Automatic annotation (TrEMBL):
Residue numbers covered by motif Histidine triad motif: 96-100
Alphabetical list of PROSITE patterns matching this protein: HIT_2
Molecular function terms, GO-annotated: catalytic activity
BP GO annotations: nucleotide metabolic process
Record protein name field: Histidine triad (HIT) family protein
InterPro entries: Histidine_triad_HIT, HIT-like, HIT-like_sf
Highest taxon of the lineage: Archaea
Active site: H98 (tele-amp-histidine intermediate)
Positions of the HIT domain: 4-111
Cited Gene3D superfamilies: HIT-like
Species of provenance: Natronorubrum thiooxidans
């Protein structure tokens, strides 16, 4: 069963398509968080950023780079939040990788990405200390080294 976004790519369901090339497509979000809220996706179905081959990821980023100013200018936005919900635990609902470009306005009150964690202590997360407590320099060094070794 193909994802709802593949159905858009195939023209099986309607969407307000704002850009399309050989490997990527962008269209307005059906439930916009702000006017102009746009989604950028690879045409091929990959569930998460982690699953995209490097060339596809580069194509997706090129489309994001092209669309961010177009989206902002179209609604006279002051800024934008550009983000992926990358995996179910991060709130991803459609299992077809997509980048949200959400126009932002002075005083819109939505806050930065950091505000996602403003009430994180209400979550029942086993490793809660990792979220709420300050990490020591040693722990930060260890995390940084681990990421570097995998990058
Ligand atoms: P996420 O929670 O990151 O998976 O976001 C999925 C997004 O897809 C939501 O913002 C939905 O409003 C949007 N969406 C779902 N179905 C459609 C559709 N048929 N056309 C456009 N946007 C959609």
């Amino acid at each position: 069963m193909s994802t709802i976004f593949t159905q858009i790519v195939e023209g099986e369901i309607p969407a307000r398509i704002v850009y399309e090339d050989e490997t990527t497509i962008a269209f307005l979000d059906a439930n916009p968080l702000a006017p102009g809220h746009t989604l950028v996706i690879p045409k091929d179905e990959y569930e998460r950023v982690n699953d995209m081959p490097e060339d596809v990821a580069a194509d997706v980023y090129a489309t994001i780079h092209r669309l961010v100013p177009a989206v902002e200018d179209s609604v006279d936005a002051d800024a934008s939040t550009v983000a992926f919900n990358n995996g179910e635990a991060a709130g991803q609902e459609v299992p077809h990788v997509h980048c949200h470009i959400v126009p932002r306005f002075e005083g819109d009150g939505a806050g930065p990405i950091h505000s996602l964690f403003s009430d994180a202590e209400t979550f029942d997360v086993a490793d809660l200390d990792q979220i709420t407590e300050d990490l020591s320099d040693d722990e930060l060094d260890e995390i940084a080294a681990d990421i570097e070794s995998r990058a």
